[in-house]
Design goal:
Blueprint (H helix, E strand, L loop, with lengths): L10 H12 L5 H4 L4 H6 L30 E6 L3 H11 L4 E7 L3 H13 L6 E3 L6 H5 L6 E4 L6 H10 L3 E4 L7 H14 L3 E3 L7 H11 L6 E9 L3 H5 L8 H4 L11 H10 L8 E8 L4 H9 L17 E7 L4 E7 L11 E4 L2 E4 L4 E4 L15 H4 L2 H5 L10 H15 L7 H8 L1 H10 L5 E2 L22
Parallel strand pairs: 1-2, 1-4, 2-3, 4-5, 5-6, 7-10
Antiparallel strand pairs: 7-11, 8-9, 8-14, 9-10, 11-12, 12-13
């Protein structure tokens, strides 16, 4: 029985209806066929890839609460660098149990299971029999939430399997790689009444949550523009023989030219602007540089005969995208993992009363500041830090503690029966630049429509990451 619906759809019914829905979306191949000439002939309000949203097959999941439970039971799929680092965050929460782990590399799964036992919990079930053993984990009756931390091409099928097996699911970014897959995840979430959420979204950083609350309090005036990025030199890691399980991440640079990892930058700025909660992202125009960085790094560091010499890189070293919202605001997104530079997610927001810029953090607001001199962002901590950061001042885990804050809040919502702060519509919106930036670059920057995954629900204000502390 579903938590939010009195009728549980059969697996056969959902498979049949979602297969039909997949045909209505646009995959990467279809998007790449858009020409600059066709885009130029289209009116400004009808971007080149405009397509009607497929018919809704279930009620909206916006604002739908979890069913409360005293214990949240978690299964983790994918136990490499990211998955292994997340286990401790779940184990730190006394109302959470890690009941199952899965990875085709047995040693990784066994190490994860040992962490669970060392934390004083019963030994979890271990699934290591091939690439599809995750289906058996998802089929368990004692799993409430599935965490997916696998290579990108498997995110969609695992999330799909989890929802079909009646599980809520959280997926590392990006949640899928194709537009039709994003639509199918939306449809499945609505049909199965299970939430599908984008994890590692960078929305729970201390700076991001402070800026969010300041924006909602009107400190920036009327919002005009923002920017986010994933600018992170990954060359050494992508060519490392041990860091990733195989060359899967590097090989995406042989397939797509656009922004492969937009979620870190897009998610926080979308929150500032209440995207899907009063505004929506309507189009994206993208431009990319030549793909030179990975080939140069290979020439300098990889020996003759290394398998990487068979690869031809097409992924732009830096992509720059401009997203337009329904209210006319502009969001700039950047992606660069192939050239040397310090880490930055940019994270900026501007309005009629001032601007915030991160990396390094600085702020200028009227009437607080004058003479064109940056002010001290820390001065706003006392009034505007989110209650989660006041309650957890020194959180453990990666990304400066934001991973723990995200897991804590998500598990809290599941325990207390609250709606999640972010949902499948956010996951689809934040990921849409993956295929759409590729299409725009191939079309010489022609704007591509970002679908309204909410099917009109974006017009309704509702809560999000700027949450109220539960009583």
């Amino acid at each position: 029985m579903n938590e939010q619906s009195p009728h549980t759809p059969s697996r056969r019914k959902v498979l049949r209806t979602t297969a039909a829905a997949a045909g209505t979306g646009l995959g990467i191949g279809a998007l790449g066929s858009v020409t600059a000439e066709a885009a130029a002939a289209a009116p400004a309000e009808a971007p080149a890839t405009a397509a009607a949203a497929p018919r809704r097959k279930g009620a909206t999941m916006a604002g739908v609460p979890f069913a409360g439970r005293s214990t949240v039971r978690v299964g983790l799929i994918g136990l490499g660098n990211r998955g292994a680092s997340m286990i401790g965050l779940y184990l730190a929460l006394p109302w959470v149990r890690v009941v199952a782990v899965c990875d085709p590399v047995r040693e990784k799964a066994e190490r994860a299971a040992a962490k669970v036992v060392a934390a004083g919990q019963p030994a979890p079930a271990v699934y290591t029999h091939g690439e599809d053993d995750y289906e058996n984990l998802c089929a368990r009756s004692d799993v409430d939430f599935v965490h997916v931390a696998t290579p990108w091409d498997s995110h969609f099928p695992i999330a799909r399997a989890a929802m079909l097996a009646d599980k809520h699911v959280g997926v590392e970014c990006p949640v899928a790689m194709r537009l039709d897959e994003l639509w199918e995840l939306v449809d499945l979430s609505e049909q199965t009444r299970r939430h599908c959420m984008q994890l590692e979204n960078c929305c729970y950083g201390r700076n991001e949550m402070r800026v969010l609350r300041m924006a909602h309090a009107g400190k920036f005036g009327r919002l005009l523009h923002g920017a986010g990025a994933y600018n992170h030199d990954l060359r050494a890691l992508m060519f490392s023989p041990t860091y990733y399980e195989g060359p899967w991440r590097r090989r995406w640079h042989t397939q797509l030219r656009g922004d492969l990892y937009p979620n870190h930058g897009f998610g926080p700025v979308a929150n500032y602007m209440d995207v899907n909660r009063g505004d929506r992202a309507v189009s994206i125009s993208s431009f990319g540089t030549p793909a030179l960085g990975l080939a140069e790094y290979r020439e300098e560091h990889m020996p003759p005969g290394d398998p990487s010499w068979k690869e031809s890189y097409i992924g732009s070293d830096r992509t720059i995208s401009l997203v337009q919202t329904a209210k006319g605001r502009v969001i700039r997104l950047e992606h660069d993992v192939s050239t040397p530079h310090p880490y930055s997610r940019i994270n900026s927001l501007g309005g009629t009363r001032g601007v915030f810029e991160d990396y390094p953090e600085r702020i200028y607001l009227e009437p607080d500041h004058k003479d064109d001199r940056w002010g001290d962002f820390a001065a706003y901590a006392g009034e505007f830090d989110h209650w989660l950061w006041k309650e957890h001042a020194n959180p453990p885990g990666g990304h400066g503690g934001m991973d723990y804050i995200m897991v804590y809040r998500l598990m809290q919502c599941m325990q207390l029966g609250l709606p999640p702060d972010f949902d499948v519509y956010d996951a689809a919106t934040w990921t849409a630049p993956v295929p759409l930036s590729h299409a725009s670059i191939k079309a010489n920057g022609a704007p591509q429509e970002i679908p309204d995954f909410t099917r009109g629900e974006w017009r309704k204000a509702r809560s999000g990451v700027d949450s109220v502390k539960p009583a």
